[in-house]
Amino acid sequence: MARCDVLVLGAGIVGVSVALHLQARGRAVTLIDRGAPGEGTSFGNAGVVEGSALLPVGFPQDLPTLLRHALKLSAESNYHMGALPGLSGWLLRYFKNSSPAGLEATARALRPLLNRARAEHHALAEPAGAMGLLTPSGWMKLYRTKAGFDATARERALADELGVAYSTLDTDGAIALEPFLRPAFRQAIHWHDCDNCSDPGGLVKAYAALFEARGGLRVTGDARSLRRNGALWRVETAEGPVDGAEVVVTLGPWSLDVMRPLGIYVPLVSKRGYHVHLAPEGGMSLGRALVDVAGGYALQNTRYGIRLTTGVELAGRDDPPTPVQIARDIPMAKQLLPLGAVREAEPWLGRRPAFPDSKPVLGPVPGQPGLNVAFGHGHWGLTLGPVTAHLLAQVMTGETPFTDPAPFSVKRFL
């Protein structure tokens, strides 16, 4: 039987970052996952570290947009009818938190984290030898109609107030930045504070390798075996049981599999999404991520090809895949760029762990000594992994935190 200071459950971007930050504070850490680092949700994202992110993805508030989504007329979303009864309570809370005031409140709460997001990644990427995977070229949102662009007025005003840098561009200005773009859009916003990642899964693997190079232990195990062993926490692994004085649950959408047996219920759902890689044609490449707002999908230059990542599918976490959004998004993407064949036989399915207020949970769980959580990062898992790990490590080790962790406490759901 092995023993350490902290068990970290989950080797995605959040878990690996937590392990590194606790290790840097002198804790003996064991990182446990049933798979290799960076092969779950962390692998399949849009590959952007969005320091300039502001308003979270919200639930539609106006009736015409609601009807369009309800009737499945939009490429931005899809849902499984059979899953809706189980999601109804979460959806109601999500709707309430998606009011203009609610989205702005979330944006303000997250701003101290997002302000530091890129710097926190660089602090890990440099010693990990992974800075070559990050390109500091910003990202760009494309708007096909004037109405679509005009709808960003509130977000732009908030950006001006908070000092988040951006540029508004006409079609020619956007094409000057991305010469392979075709003029199938009317206006664009270039958000400057962003790193583009050519291999998100590879980035997580590089961070995990750094953790191990610094003496950290990574083992294969099933987090669902977590249980108390006297005053300690125990997990069964391929190398036998491992005990820790503390444990951190960083399992993203699978966190509920560990929390529920402990009698802890939080409103976490999986906002599912898909990706495929398209072959670039004519020597095409992208200098930054693009978001086609009308389709709700993102395009990113990766080592696998041009990655197309869809919007949201509401379904059970483990429901069979239904990648209908891919079929809608590809023709729209080919209106914008010279793209060829899809390189995968089947789209990749990912699960974004999301709370109804679009904020993660971080910190200790009341009534469970030594149990800590860090999950529910929604659309911003890659972005927020290292910075939320830094904040959690400060809380766990008694340091003065760089920002108030209260907005992210799990107490808000208990």
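the 2nd protein, sequnce then structure:
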Amino acid sequence: MAVRRDLHRHPELGRQERRTTAVLADHLIAAGLAPKVLAGGTGLVCDIGAEGPLVALRADIDALPLQDEKDVAYRSTVDGVCHACGHDVHTTVVLGAGLALAQRDLPGRVRLVFQHAEEQMPGGALDVLAEGHLEGVSAIFGLHCDPSLEVGRIGLSSGPITAAADAVEVRLTGPGGHTSRPHNTVDLVHVLATVATGLPDALSRLVDPRAGLCLVWGRISAGNARNAIPREGVLAGTLRVLDKNAWQQAPELVERLVNGLVAPYGARAVVSYERGVPPVVNDPGATLLLGAAVTRALGPSALVPTVQSLGGEDFAWYLDHVPGAMARLGVRPPGSERSMDLHQPTFDVDEGALQVGVDVLVAAALAAMGAA
């Protein structure tokens, strides 16, 4: 609990998590372990055990650019930054599991992966992979806070449990002009509005509805004067999709549709499409093993099914290389009716979830090494 509250008081944004990295390293070194800081100076990995099957446990360590609005003793001390997604919980749980496993005679090895920059695009998982830290890993497991579940419950399902999430920006340009003569120029704001409404509509008719593709704009900007047609305008948003095949086809489709929508007006369009993350697709075998570990650690009533969400998670990149599974860790106080959600400035957890998470990951790591 003390570690989680310390991290919560001192949150750091992606690729700036130097204090967090140092705190984790100090705890691991004090336990006689030898953590290795990643090349960028934030994030670290640490191996436990000498030989045998290698299993990875992953936590994300970065915070969000949100003001902490909770009235608690461990409120963020960093203006405009807070742990509103539970990464402080994930980090504390993996650290606790690692320290517990370090006290045992293991039949294999465990690699703790404290990953930076999960909230960014591209995320820190790609850095971990590029440095080769998943080479030789036979399975990887992680937990993510779920405020819809009470403490003591673990949500788990085989197959996709999150969505792909990409960033889309459309920049339109034209010659500009007077609003009294739109026919003599390119009415850029009108074209922006056409793309803003037409692109999501077209995608809904050209992609299988079962793929769950959803394009939502978060920013639209153009011009400064009410009677002047601007020369440039921008749309920016996120495209989320549940189906991996549809995700792979999305960039080309978006580009084609944007060009088709603006062509009648003569505007020039530049589409910037940035890959974020694919869906997290839990491996069936790893999911079965993790579910058995939950039952073993907490009892059969603790394990509950979970549904696929439109949220993105860069744990997905690991599952392109290694079989594994992510589960949802219940963090809502038992009996509480208080509404809370991730990425809210008032987000908090019942800290009883910390020991629950530790017990589950310890059981999963032991099972994956063949000790259960």
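DSSP finds nine helices and 16 strands in the chain. Residues 164-277 form a domain with the Alpha-Beta Plaits fold (CATH 3.30.70.360).
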